Every structure is written in C-alpha cells, then in structure tokens.
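[Automated response] Your request has been received and processed.

Submitted sequence:
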Amino acid sequence: MTEPDVLVIGAGAAGIAAARAVQAAGRSVLVLEARDRVGGRAVTDHRLGLPFDLGAAWLHNAEDNPLVPLAHELGLALADSDALRHERTLVGDRPASPAELAAYDSAWNAFQAAVLARAAAGGPDCSVAAAVPQGGPWDATVAAWQGDIIASAPLDRLSLADFAATALDGRNMMVEAGIGTLFARLGEGLPIRLSAVVESLDWGGAWAVARGAFGSIRARAVIATLPSSLIAAEAIRFDPPLPAAVLQAAQDLPLGQVAKVGFRGVEALGLPAFCSIDRQVAPGKALVAMSARPFGRDLLACHVGGDAAAALEAEGDAALEAFMRAEVARRFGQQAARTLAAKPIVTNWQRDPWSRGVYSYARPGRSAARGVLAQPLAGGRLCLAGEACHARLAGTVGGAWQSGLVAAETALAALR
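Generated structure:
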C-alpha cells in the first residue's frame, strides 16, 4: 500500500486506536512504526519467564476506560489492583506504627485538599509545590509519590492546573497477560509496517508524503502519534514546519522519568500477592515504590522516578540494579536480598530514541499546551495524537487511545 486514505505514524496506543477506527469506517489505512514491535511505551517483557510490563502497567479510570471492555472481548483476564492490594509502609527498617500510618493518611488527604482548593480558587497557574503542605513528617513522602512516581517529575516542575485536571480518581485494572500483550492483540489485522522510520513529512499540499528508508508513502490525511519529546526535538522534518505554537506546546509538555527493575526470587521476602511496599523518606531523598507478587507471581517490581531515575538510568543498568538491591536489603535484610535472582529486567525509557522518557507533564503556567498540541492542522488532514494530547487522561494508555480515536474522527471528516 503506497497511497492509503490515512497514514498513521506510530503503532502505540493512539496509533492502533486511530488505525482501527479508520479501518472500521471503510477507509484504507497504513501504520508506519519506527520500532520493531507495536505498543510504543506499553510493552510486556517475558525474559524473566513471567509477563513484566516495562512501561505502562495499569488501565486507569477503569469505569469509563474503553480498553477495559476491549480486553474482555479478547478474553484477557483483568484484576482490580486497588481492591487486591496489601499496603506496607516502613519507617526506617521497621513497619510504621498505627499512629504513623494515621499521620501518613492525613498527609495524603491534606495534599489532595490543597490541590483542589488552589485549583478551585482560580488565578494564575503555579507549580504544585507552591500549593501543597511541606515540612510535616510525611509531606516529603507524599510529594515524592505524587511527583516523582505518579507524575514522573518533581512537584516544582508541574503545573498545578494540569495536575488537578489530570488527577485519576477511578479504579486501576491490571492485565494478567501484560498490558503490552493487550496492544499486540489489538494491533492484529492492521496493516502495520515495522522498523519504518519516518524522516520527513510533506503536508502542505492536497496529498501528504512521508519519506524514509522505506521509500515514500502518499496519503490524503496523516495522524502522527509521536511523543511530545520527539515533536519538540523535531525528530521528523515537517514541511512546512509545524506552527510555532505547536512546537512550543510540545516543549511545554516534556516527558518525565520513571525507571523500573524487575526481580525474581522474592519468596524469602514473605509478602502476600499484590503487595505494595513504600518507606518514609526525608526531603530531597528518592522514594522507591515496590510492587510485589502480582497475580501471586514470583516477581518484585521496584520503581524510582524523577531526577533520581534520570541520574541512575544515565549511569547504566548496573547502577540501577545495585541501587534497587541495596533498597531491598535496607527493607528486608541482607539475607533476603541475596535471594533475588541474577539478571533482573532494567528499563531504559530515557535512552529509548523513540520515546526519551515515560509520559508527559505540563510545566507551570502551561496547562493549555495539551489543547494546542491536539488542535487539528490543515483542516484536519494532519492530526497529532497521543497521551500528551488528552486534557483529562494525560500520561495514560486510556488517554492515548481516546486521543487516537478523536484524531481518526477528525481525519475521516476531513476526507469527507
């Protein structure tokens, strides 16, 4: 196929959603994917002999997430990780006391109340850090969770308006076979060309032309599902250049960092299935969030985010592995840590040339950037899509999927 009605660039969640919608409408579509696989930042790794999600791991806001019924249609089992989770919090190397846990809960509630109050008050946008409590015994731990782990960046870099608008409030479902498996199944039957790097896109005429080592493809409309990091870096040469406002929006939506290390050999830790383990941290210290034994499996996933993740990943896999092994030893003792198997899985999203990070956040004062990035161009014949383009579910595969559907609707309307 060299002249599809719609060309989709990228076979992640947004690209697969867009291609399925175009195909369902009876129009021809072709997907060009730079990687040698589908899924984008959602991929399931089986090197440990078990499904391990390297990137996205949950279907957030499950009550209205369209991927949940699609997973059911494909016969993929889901689990409500919130309902099944066993939470353990440590202070130093000991379990937190009931009084400490109550204070921790209060700190979470105070953080959320402060965000909601500041967002409701209106006025100029500020950073999240400028609006939330600080100085309490648990405030730094909550800030590390909400910033580095959940939002993938420190609170002082996050727009409070965007943070409040994209806060998740529904159930979170896990795919037993892995979320990357879900997208591999959803991509079946689509005309996807892998290892097809688009180097340039001419979109100023009646036909758009994409060029690369694969040759050239002409299409009447294009949906580009690039991460905001690649748009900002102008990884594809657009002719004419993208509007300055679009490039600025991409720069205002950088991708944060989260690094994961997955271990087997966790039975000696004595943890129940779906166990979450965190630890009180002091201001400026990295928080490691641990998720153990999903679906009862012999698996421990250790997460670190923000600047600590970026620095450790820059040092290399060995540094990340050593850091996480030391944290396991700190929490469970040296003997338990020695039972962890060799050769864990270590993620490297920051070094991945086709993502350069995990998911987007908006800089303070730039909460409108998502709407600018999602604005159709050339009367709808060029649309950008992806998690960064969704004003409500940014940073999630559900948001990316819905963004792809909206882009497909816009492109199909332009063809008509």
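Summary generated for your ticket: The two ends are 21 Å apart (CA to CA). The chain has 14 helices and 20 strands.
If you did not submit this request, please reply to this message.
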